[in-house]
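Sample intake sheet
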Amino acid sequence: MTFQSDPPLVPIPPGQDELPHDDGVIQSERHRKQMDLLIEVLELHWKDREDVYVSGNMAIYFSELQAKKNDFRGPDVFVVLDTVRRERKSWVVWQEDGRTPDVVIELLSETTEKVDRTDKMRIYAKLLHVPEYYLFDPFTGVLEAYALENATMSYVPVAPSANGDVASPRLHLGLGVRRGTYHNLDVDWLRWLDAEGRVLPTGEEQARTAEEQARAAEKQARTAEEQARAAEEQARTAEEQARAAQDQAKLLAARLAEYEQQFGKLPGGEPR
């Protein structure tokens, strides 16, 4: 008598709960704030969308071999479209229906620039097929844009516009360097731009704009109230002047009548 053995179990690849999600990279204050700024602004801009995911300094796993070797890559900022907006510990491609980032931004530093320009650029192009790749140095303010060439699965530089801004076709937005203050640091920041080249605001900038608009509206209301009071005063003055003119006309008419009664004619007129 023979027994049929059960089929061999297929090992389940590890997921985000089992895989490391902190690469331990030490960042400067400006690098950290630049990363936070880019992520915050996009999340505010797309606050009503549930089909987009924005994050940064998060591990991306794209193969079991990579996971076993603990060789993961953590982009400073990345955006995934056509996905579900929810909390994640890391981005595990085989748990995300094969979805990979549409846009990756790396913030250059002396210790990471070589990897960002070689290993990461190769992985993003040839393994993850990220359509858009951007490099930005927060201290020099130099922005570089690259687009994926499908024929070679490699990146080609994208020329910026005359003012140095670059377009992100996937996000229908732009990127440009603008001077400003973010979390008490006044430097040149990499900012997201709308179709007209206007900077997408941070939460602090939105609050400041709302406060300025409220003050302007209050000032406009006070001005309108002062103008209404002035118009009311002018109306009262005009009414008083009209009454005075009417009273003067009545007095003149009375005097003329008295004169006619006494002398029988108007001054300069024919006898009655």
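Comment: DSSP finds five helices and eleven strands in the chain. The domain at 29-200 is CATH 3.90.1570.20 (tt1808, chain A).
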